[in-house]
Amino acid sequence: MQTKLQVRQQAATGNDQDLSRPRMATNDTDFSDILDVAALRAECEALVEHYGARKDELRNALLAVLKKASQDGREKAKALLFEDGSGLRCAYRISWLQDQLITVLYDFAVQHIFPRQKDKFAITAVGGYGRDTLAPGSDIDLLFLFLPKPEDDTHKAVEFVLYVLWDMGFKVGHATRTVEECIRLSKSDMTIRTAILEMRYICGLERLAHELETRFDKEVVTNTGPEFIAAKLAERDERHRKAGDTRYLVEPNVKEGKGGLRDMHTLFWISKYYYHVRDPAELVKLGVLSRHEYRLFMKAEDFLWAVRCHMHFLTNKAEERLSFDIQREIAEALGYNARPGLSAVERFMKHYFLVAKDVGDLTRILCAALEDQQAKATPGLTGVISRFAHRSRKIAGSIEFVEDRGRIALANPDVFKRDPVSLIRLFHVADINGLEFHPDALKRVTRSLSLIDNDLRENEEANRLFLAILTSRRDPALILRRMNEAGVLGRFIPEFGKIVSMMQFSMYHHYTVDEHLIRAVDVLSEIDKGNANDTHPLVNQLMPGVEDRDALYVAVLLHDVAKGRQEDHSIAGAKVARKLGPRFGLSPKQTEIVVWLIEEHLTMSMVAQTRDLTDRKTITDFADRVQSLDRLKMLLILTVCDIRAVGPGVWNGWKGQLLRTLYYETELLLAGGFSEVSRKERAKSAADALFNALSDWSQKDRKTYSKLHYQPYLLSVPLEDQIRHTQFIRQTDKAGQALSTMVRTDSFHAITEITVLSPDHPRLLTVIAGACAAAGANIADAQIFTTSDGRALDTIHINREFADDADELRRAATIGKMIEDVLSGRKRLPEVIATRTKNRRKNKAFVIPPSVTMSNTLSNKFTVIEVECLDRTGLLSEITAVLSDLSLDIQSARITTFGEKVIDTFYVTDLVGQKITNDNKRGNIIARLKAVMSGEEDELRQRMPSGIIAPSNTRLLNADKKAGSAA
């Protein structure tokens, strides 16, 4: 018995006889290991003897027999898939099984139900089924071919067959036509034309299928190759566009995605239509594919079919999206194991993306062959075929390459052999002349990759050209992506080659590592051109003043180049940069800048999102790491590029605001302008500014409301927000309300702000967080303040959901009402959260061990508690409840979500305003937090008070303490 690995190795070494049998020969192939056809026929005949003329009972008995045969056969196909690992064999087996069931059903119908309809129609397979392959959950696509002027009983016989198949649980797509109708419709409808191209006879009147094949080739296919190819390639491009136009999405669609099975089907359609072949193996004889490329085709198809069949068997449905929920199980089913730095699922997904890349290579090679062999096609067609009637012209300054209708092509087939540097020069010349790439040029690049050796990697001219490509003022990301797809980038920079097609098993990262890095360069290029003012106004302003542009581009390209290693990728990546910098022609100073940027490329993002930026210790510690203004500028730009390139929806204006705040505070300190005025004096100045801003109020109200706030509030909240809050508090007081909420939307920052004014209570943040969770709102930040009259003024920032302000305001008002209802006791928090999570399936795809760290060195005044774990609804409410149970006062909180992972940071003191220093108490805090993050504590305490309008003595004690410190 072969293992899965042996099957893969067999395919790789070229033993392809078993996998390359003609695709239209399933009727002649014996798969009796999954179904004994003779025994099935005998069982069906026995039904006739038993039930006689009782047709309804006979039909029901037949249905039960066929249904059991189908289920048993598929279970056997599943077992064999686990044994031999071959996806194609599994698809062939299921297709063969379906053929036998349909044939037995047809024979039964025309012998016992409609005996005069034998040889009156034919049943043929189309679609994937017509290609002789069928996934476990796929639709069954059938074409019933009729004689001219079919009888009524012919239609009834077809209906009998269809209804039995439907009752067996199959999704059957079908059409009933005469041969003449098929020919007429296929001339005007490309979808029907493609279906008939793939038609395969199953049973019935065979001459009808033969007639259709003959007439289709003669009347439809002849002289329409360019038209069909252009349509299919345009159809493929549109499908790619809808899917995001990348094959490197971390949850790919195995059937429809770029580099998936549908792309292979397109290759098969084009080959069969233009070259009149029935199997890709025949393309080797025609010189379209080399034997190695054909083996690559078979390996790719077998692998994709294995993945798809396992997905269908696992989910019991036609699941085509390789989602995080099933990736681990598919990896296990395919026999992948973990390696240092990469989990089993990450190794599996890397293999998947490498296969998707191979499919892209095969597409380019086939297109190049089509252009070569169809150079005299009809002019005026669109797409790739429109370029067949090509004219080449010289490119200024280049003797190696020529221009062919806007594409760069080789002047001589031996260009790369004569001078391997031309493998890099090709992309440089294409960049400076704004040319696309001729498929033949890319095909020859792919076939010349062995020329990229150490000599070429160390070649000064090759590295100069590469650096010019990377730092181009035009479109460096486009050229880098072409280099990567052709395999040049990974060969020229072997360290980059290690992360090609590598995925990170995380909801945060949307692309493979190599795609992420190229997208980061694209963002940098956009900033460099001054086109980022709307989204990144600060970096757009800073970029022209960056002292070393080349170093910044290299750092952006390489910042994640060491992902997948056991060593921290920032440290390992810095080592790679120290080696590559001199090779690229960077000076020692430039190289050290690149090294530092890669070592610190996560620092600014983490500080901005997980630390209190109003705490001076945060700024001084960060400034100590940065040390210079130029480093600060480049690190900010690198950070923006990194976050923007993670995936759609990850960047928002709120993150930009946090980064800007950190930048400005650090810039002030590095420039020697950090205020030496005491906090007390600065707080008094802020209070005076608020008093003066309320000039249209009565003198009494001005004094009363400008003295409500303590130092932390006055020093951290902008004056314009202080004015809004003060107006809100006065309005609440005039209305005689004990609690109130105020909402504000901010489309640029993609944040909605909810401000809560309430009698203070130790569980206030717990209730607010729980109410937000119940309303489905994701909290991004929390500012927690206590007023001098014992009330809490808490501001919660939630991630925006709707683009329209009116819709977002309605949503925010609903959340605010939920907070008020819970605080007032009209609703109970455990019940509203339970309602939200009742039908939510627990996330089992990701495992993040709960982690808690406590530090007294990150702040001069507070103990900083950082928790990291798997996200879930209501988590923040549970964590803050535990902190309240432990008598900790939360001064501020930073709530950060990275896909499925949360990193929440709380600045806390004990009840008398001191840091937590007792080792036993620290150990108890860590243990309790880990327990709640693991779900080992009760999700919410049933004893939680029904309403918390009454002020809390505990928080009043804190208010008195803060008043004393402020005085």
UniProtKB/TrEMBL annotation:
Activity: how regulated: Uridylyltransferase (UTase) activity is inhibited by glutamine, while glutamine activates uridylyl-removing (UR) activity.
Reaction(s) catalysed by this chain's protein: [protein-PII]-uridylyl-L-tyrosine + H2O = [protein-PII]-L-tyrosine + UMP + H(+); [protein-PII]-L-tyrosine + UTP = [protein-PII]-uridylyl-L-tyrosine + diphosphate
Any GO BP: regulation of nitrogen utilization
Segments of skewed composition (Polar residues): 1-17
GO molecular function: [protein-PII] uridylyltransferase activity; phosphoric diester hydrolase activity
Boundaries of every HD domain copy: 513-629
Pfam families linked: ACT_ACR9_3rd, GlnD_UR_UTase, HD, NTP_transf_2
Keywords: Hydrolase, Magnesium, Multifunctional enzyme, Nucleotidyltransferase, Repeat, Transferase
Cofactor(s) the record lists: Mg(2+)
Region spans: Disordered: 1-25
EC number, as in UniProt: 2.7.7.59, 3.1.4.-
Stored InterPro entries: ACT-like_dom_sf (IPR045865), ACT_dom (IPR002912), HD/PDEase_dom (IPR003607), HD_domain (IPR006674), NT_sf (IPR043519), PII_UdlTrfase/GS_AdlTrfase (IPR013546), Polymerase_NTP_transf_dom (IPR002934), UTase/UR (IPR010043)
Positions of the UniProt region annotated as Uridylyltransferase: 1-394
Annotated ranges, domain ACT: 753-834, 864-945
Entry's family note: Belongs to the GlnD family.
Domain notes: Has four distinct domains: an N-terminal nucleotidyltransferase (NT) domain responsible for UTase activity, a central HD domain that encodes UR activity, and two C-terminal ACT domains that seem to have a role in glutamine sensing.
Functional description taken from the UniProt entry: Modifies, by uridylylation and deuridylylation, the PII regulatory proteins (GlnB and homologs), in response to the nitrogen status of the cell that GlnD senses through the glutamine level. Under low glutamine levels, catalyzes the conversion of the PII proteins and UTP to PII-UMP and PPi, while under higher glutamine levels, GlnD hydrolyzes PII-UMP to PII and UMP (deuridylylation). Thus, controls uridylylation state and activity of the PII proteins, and plays an important role in the regulation of nitrogen metabolism.
Full protein name: Bifunctional uridylyltransferase/uridylyl-removing enzyme
Organism: Rhizobium tubonense
